[in-house]
Structures are given as C-alpha cells and as structure tokens.
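Lab notebook, entry 259. We have the chain sequence and a SMILES string for adenosine-5'-diphosphate, and the next step in the workflow is to get a structural model of the bound complex before anyone spends time on docking refinements. Request logged below.

Task: model protein plus adenosine-5'-diphosphate, output structure tokens.
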Amino acid sequence: MESHILQLEHVSKTYPNGTRALKDISFCVEKGAFVSVIGLSGSGKSTMLRCINRLHEPTSGNIIFNGKNITHVGERELRDVRGQIGMVFQQFNLIKRRNVLTNVLTGRLGQWQKSISGGIFQHWPKEWIDDAYAALKTVGIEEKALVRADGLSGGQQQRVAIARTLMQKPQMLLADEPVASLDPSTSHSIMKYLKMLNEEHGVTVLCNLHFLSLVREYSTHVIALRGGEKVFEGKPSDITEQWFRDIYGEEAREVEIRA
Ligand SMILES: Nc1ncnc2c1ncn2[C@@H]1O[C@H](COP(=O)(O)OP(=O)(O)O)[C@@H](O)[C@H]1O
Ligand SMILES: [Mg+2]
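Result returned:
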C-alpha cells in the first residue's frame, strides 16, 4: 500500500506580478503524519497550501495526492479531491450571520460551493444534522449549536471550523496558521483538537505555524521555508538553535507559548 498521501515534485509558483513565491519545492507526506510548515511571513507558506488544494495553480511541478497527479485535473475531479481535503484558516471563515449548526452542516456540501442559495439552509437531511451534532460534540461545543457564529469567541469559532471539516470526513487537513489570532491557552486547545483529529480520526495534517514551541509539541515532521525555498525538512527535535536562526534570522529567539 502507498504510504505517502501527498507528494510535491519541483513545485514552483510565480504570481502574475512576477513574485516568485515558491521555488522548486519537493517533499513527501506520509499518511498519518502531522507536518508543520514554518517560516517568516512572506516565505510562501500560504501559497504552498493553496497550491496543494489548487486554490492557486502552481506554475510548474507536480502535486500527487493519494498516488494521483492532481496538478492538471479538471473541475469535477478537482471537486472530488477537495472533498477529501479539509481547510482551516487563521480567520475561521465562518458564515457569521448563520448559526453554528448551519456552519457545520455546510462542511458536507464542500466548502468550495461558496454560492449557496438561501433556501437550501432549511432542508438538511436528519442524518446530516445528527452528524453535525456529533462533530460539535467532538470539539466540545454542542451546546452552542444554535448560537450565531459571530456570537462566539475566536477559539470557539475555530472549533466550529474544525467541526465543519469533520463533516467532510477528510483524509487530509490543511491548516493555515490556525492559532495565529488566538491567545496562548486557546492556541493549545485548538492544537489539541487538531492532534486528536490526527491521532483518533486518522487525518493527515499539514499546518502552517509560527511558533516553534507549538511545532515541537504537536508535529511529527517539519518543513521550513525561506524566500520560497525549502530550507529544512526533518523532525521537530532536529531543529537546533542554529537552524532556528537560519530559518527566522539571527535576531530571532525561540518564544515559548505557555498555556
Ligand atoms: N496573490 C498574490 N499576488 C502576488 N504576490 C503574492 C500573492 N500572494 C502572496 N504573494 C507574495 O508571495 C510571497 C509568499 O506569500 P505567502 O505565501 O502569503 O507567505 P506566508 O504565508 O509564508 O506569509 C510573498 O512575497 C507575498 O507577498
Ligand atoms: Mg500566510
């Protein structure tokens, strides 16, 4: 059986304005891994995640998901692939004026169907609603099901976003700085839920992170980017103080995020 869920082969991305955001990136992700992607702001982390689910088109190179080259697949196949890949964002990306339950239910539609007509919200299958409550229970906020999304704290909103991806039953989760807007103890709580998805639901996680202490605590593998290039790949314990300064610059200090 194929042990890699994801493979990037010589992936480069140059934006139309000429910015070379990714330069010849190659790596493999094993099924079940929790991979952190680190690097300064502007190093290409978001561009890389967006190339993986093809929100952006890579300029060259190949992206192989579950043994299938998805770099140039058409719309329908792309929808299938995206159905298997959950996304979590720094700003949660919930529908603010809808309740929590509705937000979670939209995960079953695929978050790629952005323009849903209003009427559809009233007619969810009973089975989906049961699954949505189960997903909310998994992240410990089923009692918030009927509260409007914008009535929740940031940490609660991110838990809703995680529950929404659970509705997809994803094989892989891409998280773009999921705790960057949260305070330290909430950050740990969210990282623990991501870790639970990884360990208990078998979801492979690729997570852009800023703080090395979180990387060390939660991930099994690390990839570091600098100026669009991959400058490190290994285990969190292999990141020495010198590596850290190479990645973040000489002035950087390892900041501890305490719960
Ligand atoms: N849509 C875009 N058009 C042009 N340049 C972009 C675009 N998005 C990002 N960039 C540039 O690409 C580089 C990498 O950005 P990004 O992937 O957002 O890095 P990170 O997520 O690590 O902060 C930066 O120089 C950024 O300014
Ligand atoms: Mg980013």
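Notes for the group: Helices lie at 45-52, 75-83, 100-109, 126-138, 154-166, 184-200, 212-218, 241-248. Worth checking against the assay data. The chain has two domains: 1-84+171-259, 98-169.
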